[in-house]
Amino acid sequence: MTQGPAQLFSEYIPEELERLVAELRLPSGPKSRRVQNGEHVSPQRGQSTEFFEHRPYQAGHALRRIDWRATAKTSQAMVRYGEELLDAPLYLFLDSHAGMSYQSSPWPNRWDWAKALVATIAVAALRQGDPVALFSAHKNSHAPTGPSRRLSQLQAMLDQIPSTPKAASSQLYELLLGWEASNAAVGRVFVFSDWLDLSSVQASHEQQSQAIFACLERLSDQGHQIRAFELLHRDELEFPQAQNEEQALCFVDPRGRAPSRVGSPAQLRQDYLQALAEHRETLRNRARAARVQWLPMRIDKDWAAQLRSSLFQQSGAG
Amino acid sequence: MVQNPWMLLGLTAAIVIALAHRLFAQPAKRLALSSIRLIARREEQPVTPRRWQDIALLALRLAIWTLLALTLARPHCKVEQDIELFDEAHAALIVLDAGARSHHRVSGKSLWQHSIRRAIALIDALPEGSWIQIAALEARTPIRQPGYARQQAKALLQAWSDNATPFPREGLLSLSSEISNVEAHISLAPADLPKVGYFIGELDAKQSNCPPSGSSMKHWYCVSSLDTQIKISPAPQLGLSALRVQPAPELGKRTFELQVSVQNYASQASAPRALELRWYVDDHLAQRQQLQLSGTQSKASWIYGASDDQAHRIRAEIAAQDNFSPDDRRETWLAARRPLQILLVDGDPSEERSHDEVYLLAMALRHAFNDRGIVLRSMDPAQFQHALSSEGSAPKRCDLVVMANSAALDKKHAQKLEHWVKSGVGLWITAGNRVDAKLYNQHLASLLPLSLRSGSVALEGPVDLSPPELSHPIFASFSDTQSLGGARTRRIFLLEPDPSRPARVALRFSNGAPALVTRQLGQGRIAWWSTSIDRDWSELALHPAFVGLCEAIATWLAHEQGPARSKAKRDPWVAQPILLSQSQRVRVQGPATDSSEWVDAGQQFRPRRRGLYLTSRPQGPGGERFSVQLNPAASPPPRPPTPSSAQKSGVRPPKSRSHRYQPIWSELWILIALGLVAETLFRILRMRE
Fold it and tell me: B109, exposed or middle or buried, with CB in 10 Å at 0-12, 13-18, 19+?
């Protein structure tokens, strides 16, 4: 390899994040007793060769983690929770509904921003020697061979991300549910989305939101370390600006499902901001309940600083 | 007040502007926002409030549109006008320009109608007690009565206005050139009223035609028949040039080639245009021709073959459909007559031409038949006798033989001459010292109307010619009969009265002796003139009426009709002598204030000026008034101006003014331009915001 990973993925990693790739070291959990391949110790307890503790079996626990001897002794199904001695894979989930491509001058497209963040984290993980898997809502959404430490594999995964998201609704729930069923190795799960409208054709936003966080909670129970990145645009946080306060604005659903809203900024802004605050508060509460580390980011701030602080932020996680 | 009220409908278009402003201004900004779920849906449609700039812009646009509609409606404003009126009663002479240019149409009405409208407005503004007279700047203006009441004057003007072609006249007349005729209208105004003239017509840029020069009236006010200067549009202005006639004997005896050219007077050459040229004969359509007018001129000709010798009116006409119609037609009289051929037998050639009968006669006949065409042949009696022998009983090239102071023919040639006359040749025998009564009675008895007495008679005193026998066909078209009175005659031939002969006395001397006696023989006519044509016996040849008398006699003898040419030549409005009173002497006050003369009882008054005349008698009832129309071409030149009664009375300066309507659309165009500039600046400022 004659080029560094950052140079290799310069197509996906913008200039302001290139330096971060070299500096960034992904956070780890409690220190491992035996460091095998990775330089850090997996933060998750679970499958390991050294026993740590037993917990009653709950739905969603992998069957291979059932300790049959303890089960026989206690007459109930018990699973082992031990310090992860193997490498902690990094699972990256990128929501790819059409609303992710919001753009408003002078800032770049949110979809490009999200892809840059994903690529930066993925390359940083590979530099640490962690296997990486990337999931996005496209026809080949799953990584072909699961987590991998190969740059070419990562390259293939990034190439499969569409240049423009066109999904009419968020497929985040389907992605997580499908991945959960695969009983993947315990690792770190990073979810990237705007979390603004998770509704689908069959379910409302509220129903989908509850289902997603329930899934995340189960994953947390399985020992995954989950971080949810909330990627928001300035317009979404502070309401779009018009030429003047009296100019009418016509809001349309980028997914083409919700009816349009028409009004002047003065009429709509206050209600919107209040609804947005309630929405975000609900998400934070659900994340806290699901032991998901909630990491809001906004496009109009320093991307590197936000990412660095988000990765090493300890609060908000379950 | 607008000239084009239909354009006011354009004001309704302002509504369109308002709607467009409402519909198309500030469209809603469209945003695809992922968080649309968090935006509350509103039941009511949002109404985008306008900033004050929007209101101002809308008002500005509406103002521009309103001004545009008003401008196209051609508004007028009422302003103080340049017609100055006296606020005291005065004698107002209103003169209207009525030349051919009055046909020019502006805003759907002719200039003549515009003038009428202005004149009626002027009459309405005249103070009470004013004396009103109306005249048109045209020589044939009828003078109905001296002075009009206000309503009468307006009614007369309205009648003139309703007449589509009131005073068709070629060429232009200026007020200055016609001032003497125009002022004749105001001569009968009350002397105590100041006289003021108002000229209503097309004023040139410097108003050089008004006030008139040489006017005896001090006060003249010039009023344009229009409110604006006429601008000649560059649109095609088509007209016919003068009609030219050329005989075409190679094509026929009565065949003529008529030529006319269609002229485009526009300053810019227009596209080729098809025109139909129509030829009329006596108002009957005779020929249609299709012309292609390209450039400025296109010529056309038509071969006309007359069916008879009568005069016919030929008219060429196009449908130019421009603003000036008088030049769309040209007409002329045309008669397929051959020249009148007269044979003059000079019985007493004189060494001095001015004393020669034939010379005097030829001069008169040439002048009289100048338009008609005449061929004169002069010969002595011997040559005449040879001609009688050689040309047989019916000469081919002779319509009339004049034996002027000629000796009697011998019987043989007299018989040949009798054959000539019976075949239609006219014979005019004039007396003189070469006339031998005995030989005439012997050889020419069958030709003479009456037998001659022994010889010529020297009168005791010169006699004049009496008024002619107007029933005689010679004088049917002769209007200068009264002017024969001054021709003195000293020697005459007397005639033997003979009721058995078919003779008719057409003219007598004042002593009762026949001067002109005529008879019919076969198809020919014979006239006997009892005195000499030259100046030996009579002064008739020096009299102005001699030409007319010769023409009348020759015309009748040569079987010429009372020609239309004669009618056209003699305008019917030439002043005629008037017999005012048979019983007493009458004083006649003429149109000029200082012209008056006495006319004895039974005498005829000979007017010299056109205008109104007032007669007064020393005894008896008051005078009578009559009007005289006179050919201005024959009238004496205008008299030098004399101090008018207005000057003498010291007319006070004008105190009151009436109003006129002045167009203001040019100012509106400026406002529109300013509005558009402001609107543009407004838009630029908004774009910068």
Answer: middle
